[in-house]
């Protein structure tokens, strides 16, 4: 009662979709071939959906030198035993559709196998963008309540980076072609460098950002 | 055109506009002579009517408050919240209301 399926689509893991439902105690992973050792990863779904989720995790536990993320949607009905062999999964999170009974065998696995991902640069960049956004959000009340050089220079940095990355997304979206893109990116770097220099100069040689806004508002 | 679509491009537009404004400010600090208070004194000498001063403050506050509130909406999406279509519209309207109210309040300060 084993069914092997060819590799599923290689999409970046859907982070928000990972949820594991432990409905049965983990079964023995006899079918787990990770005893063969590294450096392969595999994923096996044994038996019914319930057993599967746990067996899978069990298998993944013992053979996951590389993190990956999987979300599994629309799993098959419990009356069919399925074994899905796939070459590139490790630690994963699984979502099993609640309406599995109505759905025929249709597994969609979205994975982000690290071995194929190359680098985590894009992911880290994304996270850094959000971190800076949150930091900048906190600087707004700070500028009002605690004006001074600390907030001034923090604002200079956060505003510049937030703006640089934001304009970077605009360039990425609208500038097409290798050379044009490189030109636009270079121009953007120049702009951001001048901006940061100007803001720091203002903070040092002039009244500073917080004071300037306060004075402007008293007009 | 739908509300989410329009709000999305306005988020980008206000972001770009403010970014260019900040860059212009930084560049001016490097290039223009004198200090900031001198320029303020000059504007004060123009005796601009109060209504125009208020409008100017509103015009500065509006893109900032819009981008800030909608930015929080974006961060909520990034945490996986509020993706249902009715929620998208509700949060959008909330952002617009907050934008107008906070712009009015900030311009009055």
What does this structure look like?
Chain A: It comes from Gekko japonicus. Chain A: InterPro entries: CybS, SQR/QFR_C/D. Chain A: This is Succinate dehydrogenase [ubiquinone] cytochrome b small subunit. Chain A: Keywords: Electron transport, Heme, Iron, Membrane, Metal-binding, Mitochondrion, Mitochondrion inner membrane, Transit peptide, Transmembrane, Transmembrane helix, Transport, Tricarboxylic acid cycle. The complex is a heterodimer of chains A (219) and B (109). Chain A has 219 residues and is mainly alpha-helical. Helix content of chain A is 48%, strand content 4%. The radius of gyration of chain A is 26 Å and the shape is extended. The relative contact order of chain A is 0.12. Chain B starts with a helix and ends with a helix. Chain B contains four helices and no strands. Chain B has one domain (3-107): Up-down Bundle (3 helical TM bundles of succinate and fumarate reductases), CATH 1.20.1300. Chain B is mainly α. The chains are: A mainly alpha (219), B mainly alpha (109). Chain A binds chain B through residues 15-16, 130, 133-134, 137, 140, 159-160, 163, 166-167, 170, 191-192, 194-199, 201-202, 205-207, 212, 215-217, 219, and chain B through 12, 15-16, 18-19, 22-23, 25-30, 35-37, 40, 43-44, 48, 53, 57, 68, 71-72, 75, 78, 80, 109.
Summarize the topology.
The complex is a heterodimer of chains A (219) and B (109).
Chain A (H helix, E strand, L loop, with lengths): L48 H14 L7 E4 L34 E4 L2 H4 L3 H25 L3 H26 L3 H28 L3 H9 L2
Antiparallel strand pairs in A: 1-2
Helix pairs in contact in A: 3-4, 4-5
Chain B lengths: L2 H29 L4 H10 L4 H29 L6 H24 L1
Major sheet details of chain A: 2 strands, antiparallel
CATH class of chain B: Mainly Alpha
Form type of chain A? extended
Residue fraction in strands of chain B: under 5%
Order of helices and strands of chain A: HEEHHHHH
Transmembrane segments (chain B): 15-36, 48-67, 88-108
Pathway (chain B): Carbohydrate metabolism; tricarboxylic acid cycle
Membrane topology (chain B): Multi-pass membrane protein
Pfam families (chain B): Sdh_cyt (PF01127)
């Amino acid at each position: 009662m084993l069914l092997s399926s060819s590799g599923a689509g290689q999409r970046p893991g859907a982070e928000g979709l990972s949820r594991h439902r432990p409905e049965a105690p983990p079964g023995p992973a006899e079918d787990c071939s990770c005893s063969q050792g590294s450096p392969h990863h595999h994923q096996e779904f044994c038996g019914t959906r319930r057993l599967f989720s746990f067996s899978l995790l069990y298998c993944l536990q013992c053979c996951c030198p590389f993190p990956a993320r999987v979300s599994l949607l629309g799993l098959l009905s419990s009356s069919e035993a399925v074994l899905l062999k796939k070459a590139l999964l490790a630690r994963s999170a699984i979502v099993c559709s609640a309406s599995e009974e109505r759905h025929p065998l249709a597994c969609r696995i979205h994975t982000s196998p690290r071995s194929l991902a190359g680098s985590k640069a894009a992911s880290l960049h994304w996270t850094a963008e959000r971190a800076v956004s949150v930091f900048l959000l906190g600087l707004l009340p700070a500028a009002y309540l605690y004006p001074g050089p600390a907030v001034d220079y923090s604002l200079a940095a956060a505003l510049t980076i937030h703006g640089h990355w934001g304009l970077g997304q605009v360039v990425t979206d609208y500038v097409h072609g290798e050379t044009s893109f490189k030109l636009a990116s270079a121009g953007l770097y120049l702009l951001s460098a001048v901006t940061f220099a100007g803001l720091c100069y203002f903070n040092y040689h002039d009244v500073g950002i917080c004071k300037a806004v306060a004075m402007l508002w008293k007009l | 055109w739908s509300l989410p679509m329009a709000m999305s491009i306005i988020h980008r537009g206000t972001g770009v506009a403010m970014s260019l404004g900040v860059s212009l400010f930084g560049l001016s600090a490097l290039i223009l002579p004198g200090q900031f208070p001198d320029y303020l004194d000059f504007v004060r000498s123009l005796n601009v009517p109060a209504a125009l001063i208020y409008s100017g403050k509103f015009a500065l506050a509006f893109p900032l408050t819009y981008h800030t509130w909608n930015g929080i909406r974006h961060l909520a999406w990034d945490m996986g919240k509020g993706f249902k279509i009715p929620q998208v519209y509700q949060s959008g309207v909330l952002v617009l209301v907050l934008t107008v109210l906070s712009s009015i309040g900030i311009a009055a300060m």
